[in-house]
Specification:
The strands form four sheets. The chain has a six-stranded antiparallel β-sheet with strand order 6-3-10-1-2-7, covered by helices on one side. A five-stranded parallel β-sheet has the order 13-12-11-14-15, with helices on both faces. By secondary structure, the protein is α/β, with parallel strands linked by helices. The chain has 16 helices and 15 strands. It folds into four domains: 1-42; 75-121 and 247-307, Elongation Factor Tu (Ef-tu), domain 3 (Beta Barrel), CATH 2.40.30; 131-239, NADPH-cytochrome p450 Reductase, Chain A, domain 3; 319-467, Rossmann fold, CATH 3.40.50.80. A hairpin with a 5-residue loop joins β4 (146-149) and β5 (155-158). It is globular, with a radius of gyration of 25 Å. Bound molecules: flavin-adenine dinucleotide and NADP nicotinamide-adenine-dinucleotide phosphate (NAP). NADP nicotinamide-adenine-dinucleotide phosphate binds next to β12, α13, β14 and α15. Flavin-adenine dinucleotide (FAD) is lined by residues 120, 125, 170, 246-249, 264-266, 268, 270, 280-283, 326, 329, 467.
């Protein structure tokens, strides 16, 4: 196992052409060998992760992600070699309403993985098994048959494993996919409709909008709706994108939880314009995998992705955090860090949080923890419940009333400002308010305010961690 690592060191010191040659001729075969060794090692482990697949006992062609449940594994866990973590806690955070937000804890005690508050955890989801089986039925394919996945280094696996772990079967089909599927329509009118949808014409775009963007079909819906379209499953597998890991802001601090990472995930479930109910792959899988008494803990492949969303070095530096909904996640980790420092007798600077959710009594997540921090004097808490009164109240409304505080922290006291959550509107509005504070309280021109904000961003004093 040491050979490729030593080789890597040598390669870095060699001229480019030589390192290329060595990489192709020597390293690549060694890596292949390394993979094989892992596959064979895998056989000696009783792998719960695969227990629904046909691979549980003869795992040579099981999903690559299973191989890493080797406590003696010396490779660092990363995107290609994720850690199969146990889910030790998985509970509902919402107290009412019809949405669900999960607090999930992954055990990383055997992994040697380390994290810092503000990092992300990447979770490899598994597709809904009903959808996978339905694809087998619709294409008349025995899912235990083997398939070679070219984009997984020609890995041999079964259709069932490929469709469960490697292929995004719920992705919206692109026009390119629609065009290729059209070739398999035995009915001319179905074929023409699909070909039209894939064109750039006005009519084609309108059709694509209503059939794909508004109805939001996945590949199973398409095969169910267009009955003459019957592509072979191996072609479907090559058309659909790779199943990507989902990232979650870690909502814990290693100071308090060195052996687990926590995530705060809102379960994605929505109705499309056409009335179809859609469910998110990862969050629906997580929601269905709660630890049950007397049963083995659920396992899921994860790895840690480092971020630049970091607390200032000094605990005395004042900070303002702005988060909506699950945007509270990384701030829970920050608060744990500062509370830990305070408990250890360190002086902690102003710690100000603006948190927004819909209703105080429904989705005010981690309410008790936040109120406790406030009571202990650690936290200055500003709350915006958008739907508890006739007019919306957002974190941005509260921030707007506190322009002096923003300038005081950022302009006068060398503090840090963080924003996390919705990338589309909230983060943009918050940025505009910070600019307004720099202009109106800091007395800068608009141009200088933009320059100052850019400078704060590049020195990591203004950090934004948003997704849409
Ligand atoms: C850096 C980063 C950090 C993140 N941190 C968190 C976090 O802490 N907590 C958290 O909950 N999420 C977080 N996310 C989002 C998370 O990664 C996933 O995207 C999310 O959980 C959905 O995954 P899924 O597999 O359940 O849904 P998917 O199967 O991926 O479906 C999601 C897709 O459904 C569509 N969609 C979702 N809602 C609607 C809607 N209402 N109307 C129409 N279409 C919709 C969108 O196209 C969306 O991309 C983060 C994302 C990033 C990039
Ligand atoms: N890609 C995904 O699948 C995925 C998954 C999770 C989250 N997200 C995104 O991440 C964000 C947070 O999601 P969430 O479910 O945790 O939050 P959420 O409950 O939808 O929203 C949290 C709060 O933010 C408010 N808000 C809406 N627009 C705002 C604005 N411009 N400025 C300030 N506050 C605003 C909301 O008010 P109102 O709703 O009352 O207007 C609500 O009170 C959402 O934008 C969501 O789209 C995406």
């Amino acid at each position: 196992m040491d050979a490729p690592r030593n080789m890597g060191t040598i390669i870095r010191t060699l001229p480019h052409y030589l390192s290329n040659l060595i990489n192709r001729r020597i390293e690549a075969p060694l890596r292949k060998l390394e993979n094989k060794v892992f596959y064979f090692n895998k056989r000696s482990y009783d792998d719960n992760y695969c227990h629904n697949d046909e691979h549980s006992n003869s795992c040579i062609d099981a999903c690559q992600i299973c191989v890493t449940w080797d406590k003696n594994c010396t490779r660092p866990f990363d995107a290609n070699n994720p850690f199969l973590a146990q889910i030790i806690t998985n509970k509902e955070l919402h107290k009412g309403g019809n949405r669900s937000c999960l607090h999930v804890e992954f055990d990383i005690s055997d992994s040697k993985m380390e994290y810092e508050a503000g990092d992300y955890v990447a979770v490899y989801p598994k597709n809904n098994s009903r959808l996978v089986e339905r694809l087998g039925e619709l294409t008349n394919t025995d899912l235990s048959k083997g398939i070679t996945l070219a984009n997984k280094g020609n890995q041999i696996t079964s259709y069932r494993t490929a469709l469960s772990h490697y292929i995004e079967i719920t992705a919206l089909p692109s026009t390119d996919v629609i065009r290729k599927l059209a070739e398999y329509c035995s009915n001319e009118s179905d074929k023409n409709k699909m070909l039209l949808m894939a064109t750039n014409s006005k009519e084609g775009k309108t059709l694509y909008k209503s059939f794909v963007e508004e109805a939001s079909p996945n590949i199973v819906h398409i095969l169910e709706d267009i009955k003459s379209c019957r592509p072979p499953l191996n072609h479907i597998c090559s058309l659909l994108p790779h199943l990507q890991p989902r990232y979650y802001s870690i909502s814990s601090s290693p100071k308090l939880f060195p052996e687990s990472v926590h995530v705060t995930a809102v379960v994605v479930k929505y109705k499309t314009k056409s009335g179809r109910v859609k469910q998110g792959v990862a969050t629906t899988w997580l929601a269905g995998n709660k630890p049950q008494k007397g049963e083995p803990l659920p396992r899921v492949p994860i790895y840690i992705r480092k971020s630049e969303f970091r607390l200032p070095q000094s605990m005395q530096t004042p900070i303002i955090m702005v988060g909506t909904g699950t945007g509270l996640a990384p701030f829970r980790g920050f608060l744990q860090e500062r509370a830990h420092a305070q408990r250890n007798g360190n002086e902690v600077g102003d710690t100000i949080l603006y948190f927004g959710c819909r209703h105080r009594h429904q989705d005010f997540i981690y309410q008790e923890e936040l109120e406790e921090y406030e009571k202990s004097g650690l936290l200055k808490l500003n709350l915006a419940f958008s739907r508890d009164q006739a007019d919306k109240v957002y974190v941005t409304h509260l921030l707007e009333q506190n322009l002096e505080q923003i300038w005081n922290v950022l302009g006068n006291r060398n503090g840090h400002f963080y924003v996390c959550g919705d990338a589309n509107n909230m983060a943009v509005n918050v940025r505009d308010i910070v600019l307004k504070s720099i202009r109106e309280i800091g007395g800068k021109s608009h141009q200088d305010a933009v320059k100052l904000l850019n400078n704060l961003k590049s020195t990591k004093k203004y950090c934004s961690d948003t997704w849409s």
